[in-house]
Write a sequence for this structure.
């Protein structure tokens, strides 16, 4: 579609861009209740953008390529917009309530958060290497500043430095990989690259090298081994609301980009329609590469989490492990695999944000992030202890919680592929799930079986209680009625890779 | 004097060398500014590739447009990175990556 036609479909993104500026300007004008006003305006624009993308999605009911194929509007892009929107709205609530967010520069922070939403929307829809690189950098640049939000705090500043250095290297390596892919095909658009790869098989060595380098850039965003080194330090050092956001928003966007990159560039479009197996294009061994990374990521994440005592650091390693499980779904190179990844992301959004909300509430009250702050929590604050248990059991993958169904779909997709390599991957995944029970259960044991260090009850304000219940309901309901989400994921995957020409 | 003619091959070799030097710089330097210089080398090696491929392989301007975006983003990233390095210096009085460390296992 031409530029002028595209703009009318680009309304949600324009709203977000306008919203970021509106928050910044209003924050300059008002003197009282600055945080509240910034959060309300920012939240309103994100909500409007979500509603607008919903109406756009129902209007076009298919696939539309905008700005000469830079971004596509398809059901999967809409699915990810929903995930990003919910993640940002919950984060705005965290920012508003948390004692860690300073009143003074909250306006700038909300501006960044609304701007990063725009970046995430674009990451989920990017179908051209230029747009992939631009949106990934957009999200990264905002994230670096957000990690260093508490300027007075040494840990927060250090987190920002580690993030910017690792991030700079990763995106540089990725853009070099993109340049090689461009050299092999002469195109930057993913659909055109696919057609070029199908027309003439390029040198396998160069193609594999470029895929490895591009995985490095995207793997950094989803914290996959060996590009995970920044993750524990940044998650621990950044203010907790920011950590909560990092663990779902940019990670989901990285997965969106990875799915779109691999499943449009290296999969024959015509094989999407039929019910048969997907047909590979170009012959790059990416399922093998992603599978190896998946196995390494979940193993390292789970085993490193065992010895952690700081809850934020523990959840950082746990988020690395969960990235590993989801990579397994991508490696399976099947429709079912992509669906299971989307389902898992939807579930992970609620259970992980819920766990972080408890961490924020406890930290607000006790200033503690260590596991000792959780000892005897069932006596000091039974409500939070019970809901934390729900979230942790769901993260482990225990029935009847949603995390179990998510893992079930992932393993089912891997096993459905069959063959020695996929069985091995599934076995590694199942062993890892067993290991993860160990460290999640350690927190549950501390909350219920150990005596508290301090006996005084922990206060939990009403808004926190409401938010906890709001996050716990999907965690339980999706475990009992998975079709609520799986129907949506099925529709979302349907049109992936369909666009061929016409932009 | 056929071997003196500059073709695609020479550009790719230069960019490959530049990329390797950037990686070595990033991996060995502790100083934050030096690491950022290594990142610039990596980005510029990609730029050389894009322009060379745009001329010799594609014939269209896609690669050159990509290069312009990479240059712009490199500037934005350098601005943010230097601001963070400045904040690190204010807190820790050093910009050596391994000295400015409070977060550990």
């Amino acid at each position: 579609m031409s530029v002028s036609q595209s703009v009318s479909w680009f309304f949600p993104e324009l709203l977000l861009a306008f919203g970021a500026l509106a928050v910044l300007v209003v924050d300059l004008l008002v003197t009282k209740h600055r945080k509240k006003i910034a959060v309300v305006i920012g939240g309103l624009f994100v909500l409007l953008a979500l509603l607008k993308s919903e109406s756009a999605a129902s209007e076009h009911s298919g696939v539309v390529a905008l700005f000469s194929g830079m971004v596509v509007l398809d059901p999967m892009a809409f699915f990810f917009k929903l995930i990003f929107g919910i993640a940002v709205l919950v984060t705005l609530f965290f920012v508003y309530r948390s004692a860690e967010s300073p009143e003074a520069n909250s306006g700038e922070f909300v501006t960044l958060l609304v701007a990063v939403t725009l970046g995430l929307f674009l990451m989920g829809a990017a179908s051209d290497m230029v747009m992939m690189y631009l949106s990934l950098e957009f999200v990264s640049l905002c994230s670096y500043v957000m990690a260093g939000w508490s300027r007075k705090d040494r840990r927060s500043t250090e987190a920002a430095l580690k993030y910017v250095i690792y991030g700079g290297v990763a995106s540089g390596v990725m853009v070099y990989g993109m340049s090689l892919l461009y050299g092999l095909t002469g195109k930057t658009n993913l659909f055109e690259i696919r057609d070029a790869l199908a027309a003439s098989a390029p040198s396998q060595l160069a193609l594999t090298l470029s895929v490895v380098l591009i995985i490095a850039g995207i793997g950094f965003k989803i914290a996959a081994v060996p590009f995970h080194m920044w993750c524990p330090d940044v998650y621990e050092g950044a203010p907790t609301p920011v950590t909560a956001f990092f663990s779902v928003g940019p990670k989901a966007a990285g997965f969106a980009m990875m799915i779109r990159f691999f499943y449009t560039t290296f999969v024959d479009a015509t094989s999407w329609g039929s019910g048969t197996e997907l047909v590979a294009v170009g012959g790059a061994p990416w399922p093998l590469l992603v599978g190896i990374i998946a196995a390494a990521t979940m193993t390292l994440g789970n085993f490193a989490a065992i010895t952690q005592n700081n809850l934020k650091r523990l959840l950082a390693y746990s988020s690395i492990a969960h990235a590993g499980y989801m990579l397994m779904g991508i490696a399976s190179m099947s429709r079912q695999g992509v669906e299971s990844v989307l389902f898992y992301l939807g579930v992970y959004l609620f259970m992980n944000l819920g766990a972080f909300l408890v961490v924020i509430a406890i930290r607000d009250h006790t200033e503690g992030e260590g596991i000792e702050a959780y000892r005897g929590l069932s006596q000091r604050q039974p409500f939070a202890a019970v809901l934390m248990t729900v979230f942790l059991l769901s993260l482990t993958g225990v029935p009847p919680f949603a995390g179990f169904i998510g893992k079930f779909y992932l393993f089912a997709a891997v096993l459905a592929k069959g063959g020695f390599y996929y069985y091995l991957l599934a076995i590694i995944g199942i062993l890892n799930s067993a290991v993860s029970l160990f460290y999640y259960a350690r927190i549950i044991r501390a909350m219920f079986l150990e005596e508290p260090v301090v006996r005084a009850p922990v206060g939990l304000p009403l808004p926190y209680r409401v938010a906890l219940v709001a996050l716990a309901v999907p965690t339980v309901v999706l475990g009992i009625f998975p079709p609520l989400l799986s129907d949506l994921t099925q529709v979302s995957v349907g049109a992936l890779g369909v666009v061929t020409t016409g932009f | 004097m056929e071997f003196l003619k500059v073709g695609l091959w020479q550009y790719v070799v230069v960019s490959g060398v530049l990329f390797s030097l950037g990686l070595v710089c990033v991996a060995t330097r502790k100083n934050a500014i030096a690491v950022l210089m290594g990142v610039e080398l990596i980005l510029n090696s990609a730029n050389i590739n894009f322009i060379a491929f745009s001329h010799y392989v594609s014939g269209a301007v896609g690669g050159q447009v990509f290069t312009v975006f990479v240059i712009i983003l490199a500037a934005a990233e350098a601005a943010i990175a230097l601001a963070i390095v400045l904040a690190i210096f204010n807190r820790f009085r050093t910009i050596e990556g391994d000295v400015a460390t409070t977060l550990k296992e």
